[in-house]
Design goal:
This protein is an alpha+beta fold. The chain is built from 15 helices and 19 strands. Strands 1, 8, 9, 10, 11, 12, 13, 14, 15, 16 and 17 form an 11-stranded mixed beta sheet that branches. Strands 4-5-7-6 form a 4-stranded antiparallel beta sheet, covered by helices on one side. It has a two-stranded antiparallel sheet with strand order 2-3. One of its GO terms (cellular component) is ATP-binding cassette (ABC) transporter complex.
Length: 509
């Protein structure tokens, strides 16, 4: 059924960039903010792809408010204006969408934002290899008409606006794409902060962009350090070396003033992916044995100091509708098709995870103990994420523990499910392929948000869990650190925003 999207006034977009906290309440900003101050930020993971917006590095560009998208999402996940001020779906042809591009926007290199520039930027993402995962299974054709961008999909797609909110579809200046293997975001965004320089995997520098199309940033810039070691990040907050700190480890939270930390329920699930293509877990009964061996509550108590939630499925409490829909008869019928667990005795398995999220190695230790009690023999491989990701995706491990955001790209979990569990998914660590899951994901992708999409998503979850391709362990809560002088930093469950134009430091004494 076609949809006509209502035009939203300009003021709506400003409400998106600095007002929503984890509780949905408006954050206060200091009237005595020091507009000459620079914000020091300690980030969890270093760039893995030269800060290319076509990779997961795009979320850093978004969290620094240097790269922007056509569409933004509000606290409820609804599409709101970004670099597009309005959009509509054609009544006669629901595969066609029209986006009106905001006037008066310049890129950081001084060039003008035009419909043609938007089309070229989006086309670069379409042509990329691999494509950004938000485009998995999606065919887009772009054109320009009357200064608007037209987006045509091969099939009717209810989530075109939400897809265009993905940081991996950020709009950069034409010069960012010329003659480069990796797209260069330095000096080519449209946000309130301009990316000035990047020192490899060590640091990044951003300055206020004085010609920003909206209100200018309250801080003069930010200095970012990449600090994979969680203890060092926590120490940077305690000592005042960092004003804002990503992902304070649970084990460090108790050593920090409670007034400086914020706990946010995340749409992020700690999941054990099982290699369904080869090795012991190609047998569904062996996968079922692993599932039955796991004590989730013990993992949470032991590794997260009870600062997490038991996973009953792939989607957690950050999506409150998920739990209720698991009681539906259709969901329970699918789950009832799970294989019965085999008796395992001496079955050898390899278990991988990474150190960047400091709780995961401890989860691996506890999980090894639980699996060995069930009869498995476990060999662990734990490395930094940048050194283990390729092996995980290539199916080197029998099992892999991953902390995975479930609504990272579009605000909707179908893209995550497709990426991880569809036969053609680009991040299919489980090497999994099942017609029943592909069919369920296809059906869910065709539903409009108001027309039963949530139930269809949950039935797709049930199909995945029925195959034990992955075992959800727990739903994480992120602990974000902010110095007492900081105001207006975002506590964003989707991990898209962190430092915005509204973020400021109190005036220096």
């Amino acid at each position: 059924m076609p949809r006509l999207m209502t035009t939203i006034p300009l003021a709506g977009v400003f409400a998106l960039t600095g007002c929503f906290s984890s509780s949905g309440e408006e954050q206060s900003t200091s009237e005595s903010a020091d507009t000459d101050a620079r914000i020091s930020v300690a980030m969890l993971q270093p760039p893995r792809s030269g800060l290319s917006p076509l990779s997961d590095d795009a979320f850093k560009l978004s969290r620094w408010s240097t790269a922007e998208t056509l569409i933004a999402l509000d606290a409820e996940g609804e599409a709101q204006p970004g670099l597009a001020t309005e959009w509509s779906q054609d009544d006669a042809d629901p595969s066609l969408w029209r986006f009106t591009i905001r006037d008066g926007v310049t890129f950081h290199d001084g060039s003008e934002l035009t419909a043609a520039a938007v089309m070229e930027s989006l086309q670069a993402a379409i042509d990329a290899s691999p494509q950004p995962r938000i485009l998995d299974g999606v065919d887009l054709e772009l054109s320009v008409e009357d200064d608007d961008v037209l987006v045509r999909t091969a099939d009717e797609d209810p989530l075109v606006p939400q897809r265009l909110s993905s940081p991996q579809l950020s709009i950069l200046a034409e010069e960012a794409y010329e003659g480069a293997q990796v797209v260069d975001p330095i000096g080519h965004g449209t946000g309130p902060f301009e990316l000035i320089s990047v020192d490899g995997t060590s640091s990044a520098t951003l300055d206020r962009y004085e010609d920003y199309w909206g209100d200018p940033a309250r801080a003069s810039g930010m200095d970012v350090e990449f600090v994979p070691d969680g203890t060092a990040r926590a120490a940077a907050l305690r000592t005042g070396d960092a004003d804002v700190v990503e992902a304070v480890p649970v084990g460090q939270a108790g050593q920090i003033d409670e007034d400086l930390i914020y706990e946010v329920a995340m749409p992020r699930t700690n999941t054990l992916y099982l290699n369904t293509e080869e090795g012991p877990f190609s047998d569904p009964e062996v996968r079922a044995a692993a599932r039955e061996a796991i004590d989730r509550a013990a993992l949470i108590e032991g590794a997260y100091e009870s600062r997490a939630d038991v996973a009953e499925g792939l989607l957690g409490p950050a999506l409150p509708w998920a739990a209720d829909l698991r009681d539906e008869a259709s969901y329970q019928e699918i789950i009832g098709q799970r294989a019965e667990p085999a008796a395992v005795d001496g079955v050898e398995i390899s278990l991988g995870t990474f150190t960047d999220r400091s709780e995961l190695p401890e989860v691996a230790v506890l999980l090894e103990q639980q699996l060995e009690q069930a009869g498995f023999v476990v060999t662990q491989d734990v490395r930094e994420y940048q050194y283990i990701e390729a092996d995980a995706v290539d199916g080197v491990f029998d099992a892999f523990i991953l902390s995975r955001a479930t609504v990272l790209d579009s605000g909707d979990p179908v893209a995550y499910m497709y990426s991880d569990f569809a036969c053609e998914g680009s991040f299919n660590i489980s090497q999994f392929c099942a017609d029943s899951v592909d069919t369920a994901l296809q059906f869910a992708s065709e539903q409009y948000p108001a027309d039963g999409r949530e139930l269809a998503i949950m039935e797709a979850e049930a199909q995945i869990l029925a195959e034990d391709a992955a075992i959800p362990l727990l739903h994480e809560r992120v602990i974000q650190g902010e110095a007492a002088s900081v105001s207006g930093a975002e506590q964003d469950p989707r991990e898209r925003l962190l430092i915005t134009g509204e973020t400021a430091l109190g005036e220096s004494d």
